[in-house]
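TOKENISE THE FOLD
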Amino acid sequence: MFIVKPQNYTYDVLKSHIAALLQEYPFLRSFSIGRSVAERELSVLVWGTGDKRIFLNGAHHGMEWITSLLLMQMLETCCHHYANRTSIGETNFYELFSRVTLAVCPMVNPDGVELAICGLSEKLPPITKTRLKAYNGDSTDFSKWQANLNGVDLNHNYDAAFYKGVFMQHKLGIFSPGPTRYSGNEPESEPESRAVADFTRSFKPDIAVAYHTQGEVIYHDFESKATAKSHQMAQALSEISGYQLDETDGMASYSGYKDWVIDAFGIPAFTVEAGLGENPLPLRQIDKIYQDNLPMLLYLLKA
């Protein structure tokens, strides 16, 4: 029976699942790469020991917490099949374990996730609640909150044409912290984005994927810098999943994690927008999201 089950995927649920997976699968490794604004640990889990390195991350945006659940389900699938020496089709997890190192940061923005799911909980100091409410246009409805606890959109806080993004942000009338799209004062100004960037630099992945919702699309380029290999892989991912390839426009074209990885390292990097509808996506979509995305992971493990 699988440990990771569909539910509102709070930080506490994630931590309990990490502990349970580590107990069930002693070959799985976990460590902290840093802490959020509210001092929540940013956990990375590692499956495999091989030379090929893949880094997956989710929940840069608070209301997109279903991506954390997706990543944990896919990671548990890898663990289960490796431990039982079973395969999915032609994917032999026991053989892949010694060829691939898969690192997963399931929840980049735990503070934003907590806000999106729990709102202004009693755990927050009164001064923080007052500040967040002001950032949120005086509303106490945080279900569509994307940013971190400083009101910075973490997926606009990387060093990839950062100031072009700020210019576009200003054109949209965004000049200060808020629920979404505020880039911060400078790249990696936030502890969460800095921790993910530092880990990426030290891990040196061959492939990186950031999971978001929604749209069933895959973004794979940044300012026409993606390699031929990246284009080929993106086409294969699209054919496997039925997700469409797309290009970002406007502010979405700058300072995202995928953009920074392509710009800084020149490796295949993708943003996968899972599911369809309006964020936050309902839990009833997780089965289809999992079925659509697992084959893409299996392809990346073998690519």
User: Anything to note?
Assistant: The chain is about 40% helix and 15% strand. The radius of gyration is 18 Å.
